[in-house]
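Input record, target 12 of the design panel.
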């Protein structure tokens, strides 16, 4: 077993020191992790185009500061009140500001769009869309804005024209919004061409997708709020991509080349505005085609490349064009086991595999020198890091960020300097400016640890060796007055599912501050990222295919074995808590390994994968008819009779991600079996409990564990 232990925070010794420190309340831990106790940061850092100057904002985004690479002092430049007076606006903050050029910036509240000149201190309203507008996407070069009202798309032009892009009365036809339930890296439904003269948009036909009832209790009597929810194995949405031409005011449509319920993902325009590139994925998610279409006609031109995999193919990054003067592009693929960069020409010929790393590339950040140098974020050899690398078109790779940790990066327009801010296990937040030649140019922030004034324990990052030989990262939080001669109960916090990584080399190691509060109640708080979790490559993640829960639980139990080997762990007082996939894991551990945990609290759990959505569920489990044994084994209904410990199930009553049917079905099974358990609904909350009610949630979760794990 390989173990590397690091410590965060001070070990507090002596009652005199305790008296000088503040006790952490649960309310503060939940509400003020990033407010009162969050490290100092350069909030909203942006380079001003074509200069070596930059701006950032106060913590509440009410004040703008300006400085430059060579200037040692920060200048307080504008307040949001000054901007509102000049514009006649009611902006609440500078959040979302975008620089137009070296003197002007754009700012908006999602509905009203303004420009402001920093030399004259004057500005103007560009667009006022009306309060019903949503999903607004502003194009800074043309100053056009696209948006949706209801299920239709509209455009306001700089000249003042209001263009109706779609006019569908049928509520089953949804345009301009994210499709595929935001899988495949999809986060929106509107896409401007580089010149702002063409608008691509998603359109989905949900006619055949079942209406799923959610209850709005805020009305008297209560009323249904139906959503479209495609469950695994059932009929799905049918997508199209529209391309609207502002000059002709006409739209051409692109449909899947394969089946009508294939996925259309990762849309991008070529730099010359002539073509759109779309990654099409079949419904079984084991075949991807990167296709090119004419912007003018919507006609299919060619397939640039294909990828297949017997488990899944999941493109999450659009084709990246490093030069505005070329249609050569970079494609991110994990076909060799890890996300790497591949450089192609526009015939689909591979020019060069730029990286061949045995670690995960996360995203492309920027390009400079007319596309000859690419900057990208990747984990490096330590999967808990987020580092920045550069690579040239010959494949020469350079590590740019010098310190291990989790980095943010921003490059100047001319590519001479970059902003680098990072946190790590031992660093709350440091920010500096570097010359791309490799020299430190300016130190900006070295944040102090604001938790030094709070009674708080320690966090340790370690690794375990899994049953298959995998390295598994773990985090153990101990109380400030930890005594190795005592026996402590343990709360295991689990997620365990794809794409997620609970343990990172960042401030607090990715932990929530309430975990440190829990430790002060006399607990150890433990987390393990097992097989199936993110940032470890395809083999590590894809072993869970068709058998969700099996290997993930095996790895969690490896962690339990380790905990029980520690002389200061009370192996008879183990509790487990998680949400969403972590709720599935919590309930699975309680039912399929009933002698391990005394208490479990599962929030928003998947209890049977046949109730979950097509896009995510079918990737990992295939369709129910293709994998009946896998679905049956993973179903918690099958294991409900095994419950021995105390189990609390929690669910938001209008959860539109893991619908409440999951919990209801499991509760009914418990009732049928005559087995007692506990259930707590959060009225009118969605997939998680947010806002002021989150304090109530965490008090409910942690109090239950403390009281039932005695």
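The sequence produced for target 12 reads:
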């Amino acid at each position: 077993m390989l173990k590397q232990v690091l410590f965060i925070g001070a070990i507090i010794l002596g009652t005199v020191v305790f008296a000088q420190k503040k006790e952490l309340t649960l309310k503060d831990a939940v509400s003020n992790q990033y407010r009162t106790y969050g490290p100092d940061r350069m909030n909203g850092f942006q380079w001003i185009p074509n200069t070596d100057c930059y701006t950032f904002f106060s913590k509440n985004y009410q004040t703008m500061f300006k400085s430059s690479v060579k200037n040692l002092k920060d200048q307080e430049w504008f307040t949001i009140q000054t901007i509102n007076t000049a514009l006649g606006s009611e902006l609440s903050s500078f959040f979302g500001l975008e620089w137009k050029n070296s003197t002007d910036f754009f700012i908006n509240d999602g509905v009203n769009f303004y420009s402001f000149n920093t030399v004259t201190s004057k500005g103007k309203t560009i667009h006022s869309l009306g309060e019903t507008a949503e999903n607004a996407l502003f194009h800074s070069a043309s100053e056009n804005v696209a948006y949706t009202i209801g299920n239709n798309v509209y455009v306001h032009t700089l000249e003042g024209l209001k263009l109706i892009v779609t006019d569908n009365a049928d509520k089953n036809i949804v345009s301009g919004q994210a499709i595929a339930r935001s899988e495949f890296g999809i986060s929106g439904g509107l896409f401007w061409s580089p010149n702002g003269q063409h608008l691509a948009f998603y359109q989905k036909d949900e006619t055949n997708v079942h209406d799923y009832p959610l209850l709005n209790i805020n009305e008297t009597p209560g009323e249904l709020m139906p959503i479209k929810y495609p469950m695994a194995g059932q009929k799905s949405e049918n997508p199209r991509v529209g391309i609207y031409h502002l000059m002709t005011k006409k739209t051409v449509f692109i449909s899947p080349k394969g089946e009508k319920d294939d996925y259309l993902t990762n849309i991008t325009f070529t730099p010359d505005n002539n073509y759109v590139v779309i990654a099409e994925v079949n419904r079984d998610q084991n075949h991807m085609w990167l296709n090119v279409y004419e912007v003018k006609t919507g006609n299919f031109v060619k397939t640039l490349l294909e990828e297949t995999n017997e488990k899944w193919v999941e493109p999450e990054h659009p084709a990246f064009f490093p030069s505005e003067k070329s249609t050569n592009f970079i494609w991110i693929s994990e076909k060799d086991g890890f996300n790497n960069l591949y450089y192609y020409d526009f015939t689909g010929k591979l020019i060069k595999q730029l990286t061949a790393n045995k670690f995960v590339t996360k995203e492309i950040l920027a390009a400079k020198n007319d596309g000859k140098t690419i900057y990208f974020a990747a984990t490096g050899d330590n999967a808990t890091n987020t580092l920045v690398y550069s690579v040239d078109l010959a494949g020469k790779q350079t590590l740019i960020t010098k310190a291990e940790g989790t980095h943010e990066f921003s490059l100047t327009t001319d590519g001479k300097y970059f902003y680098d801010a990072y946190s790590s296990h031992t660093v709350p937040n440091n920010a500096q400016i570097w010359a791309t030649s490799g020299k430190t140019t300016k130190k900006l922030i070295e944040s102090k640890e604001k938790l030094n004034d709070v009674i708080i324990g320690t966090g340790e990052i370690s690794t375990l060796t899994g049953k298959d030989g995998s390295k598994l990262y773990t985090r153990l939080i101990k109380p400030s007055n930890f005594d190795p001669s005592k026996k402590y109960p343990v709360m295991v916090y689990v997620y365990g599912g794809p794409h997620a990584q609970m343990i990172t080399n960042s401030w607090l190691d990715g932990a929530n501050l309430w975990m440190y509060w829990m430790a002060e109640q006399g607990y150890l708080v433990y987390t393990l990222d097992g097989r199936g979790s993110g940032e470890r490559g395809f083999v590590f993640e894809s072993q869970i295919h068709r058998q969700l829960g099996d290997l993930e639980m095996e790895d969690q139990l490896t962690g339990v074995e380790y905990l029980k080997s520690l002389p200061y762990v009370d192996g008879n007082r183990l509790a487990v808590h998680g949400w969403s996939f972590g709720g599935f894991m919590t309930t699975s551990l309680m039912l399929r390994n009933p002698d391990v945990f005394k208490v479990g609290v599962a929030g928003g759990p998947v209890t049977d994968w046949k109730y979950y959505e097509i896009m995510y569920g079918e990737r990992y489990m295939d369709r129910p008819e293709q994998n009946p044994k896998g679905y049956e084994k993973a179903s918690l209904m099958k294991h409900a009779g095994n419950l021995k410990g105390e189990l609390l199930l929690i669910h938001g009553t209008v959860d539109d991600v893991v619908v409440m049917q999951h919990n209801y079905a499991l509760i009914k099974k418990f009732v049928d079996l005559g087995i007692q358990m506990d259930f707590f609904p959060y009225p009118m909350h969605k997939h998680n409990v947010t806002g002021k009610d989150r304090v109530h949630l965490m008090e409910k979760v942690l109090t239950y564990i403390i009281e039932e794990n005695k």
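The chain has three domains: 15-35+450-708, 41-128, 133-319.
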